[in-house]
Amino acid sequence: MPLATRPSAALDAVMTHTASFSGVLDAARQIAGAAVRTPLIESPALNAHLGGRVLIKAETLQVAGAFKFRGAFNRVSRLTDAEKARGVVAYSSGNHAQAVAAAAKQMGTSAIIVMPADSPRVKVEGVIAFGGEVRSYDRWSESREAIGEEIARTRGSVLVRPFDDPFIIEGQGTCGLEILEQADAPIDQLLCGASGGGLMAGINLAFAERSPDTQTWAIEPAAYDDTRRSLEAGERMTYPPGAAPSICDALMSDRPGELTFPINRRLSGVLTVTDAEVAEAVRYAFRTLKLVVEPGGAVSLAALLAGRVETAGRTTAIVLSGGNIDPALFAAIIEDRFTPGAPE
Fold first, then answer.
1. In the chain, which ranges are continuous DSSP H helix?
2. pLDDT, one tens digit for every residue, the chain (344 residues)
């Protein structure tokens, strides 16, 4: 169903600042020394398998194990002393949650995180390890946005949204900026997972300025293709009701962001992958690349291995966006015991 495109009143404060390429450059300066400049790596085995070059941005090695720290630190580090005294609140299935908790700890402020009750335990434990307070909710019957906004009102905390904040978008854009600075050749195409679209929007800001001829593709789980539907409809859409849960818990946002969607209109397109294809990518990353990647972080690799785009004779960049996978699920996948759709 279509969604309103007019910005909500809740976004008024952050919308006084507009996400831009100059903001991405500023974010790079802001997070320097706090975030990891993750490596851009190549695998001869993967290149040979696909018949082209694949440049892999290993955000699994980022602080808190995912790209999300970039945006979280860019936002939280800009708080005033008065705002720090009141703390921050965020809602997330896990990676933004850990990133905000980690950024809050570095900046000496408190964080309460609204997380789905079915979040992977490793992500909940990560928030707690960084000193964050977890407030659980039912993702199928409760609104995380409403809960987060109520906590912000009652506590006077600053709400740090997972993607609909220009400072978050610009922080995530530093990932794309680094890819372009680290690559030793022109990039023909870039693939990256999309949920609310913050990382993809930040990357698009960087590539539109520095590499406009590069095709950018968003990757979504097959049942959670709201970005694909939105681009086809020309307005923000949800995915169909009744979608079964995906192992890509990080990519189950129900709609593109109000701020991210207009930026991501420049996408070359959106590709979808199944849970079985994602599981194969997680296995391949471990067995061949020697990397631990969570399902939502492996969708770009899954799209390549499933042949969703042409790779022969091309240079393709992909983002492995996170490595926070539940240990039991990881063991089941790499030991070939995982069955898509079966209870975990």
1. 21-31, 44-50, 68-76, 81-86, 95-107, 121-129, 144-155, 166-182, 198-210, 226-233, 260-263, 275-284, 299-305, 327-334
2. 334 333 434 344 455 899 999 999 999 999 999 999 999 999 999 999 999 999 999 999 999 999 999 999 999 999 999 999 999 999 987 899 999 999 999 999 999 999 989 888 888 999 999 999 999 999 888 998 899 999 999 999 999 999 999 999 999 999 999 999 999 999 999 999 999 999 999 999 999 999 999 999 999 999 999 999 999 999 999 988 888 889 999 998 889 999 999 999 999 999 999 999 999 999 999 999 999 999 999 999 999 999 999 999 999 999 999 999 999 999 999 999 998 875 44
- Would you say how long the chain is, in residues? 344
Q: Are 147 and 77 in contact (CB under 8 A)?
A: no
- Residue 288 CA to residue 135 CA, distance in Å, equals 38
| Residue 68 identity | K
* CB of 11 closer than 8 Å to CB of 242: no
Q: Which residues contact 328 (CB under 8 A, 6 or more apart)?
A: 344
Distance CA 6, CA 40 (A): 38
User: CA–CA separation, 152 vs 111, rounded Å?
Assistant: 11
**Residues contacting 282, CB < 8 A, separation 6+:** 293, 294, 295, 298, 325, 330, 333, 334
CB atoms within 10 A of CB 44: 7
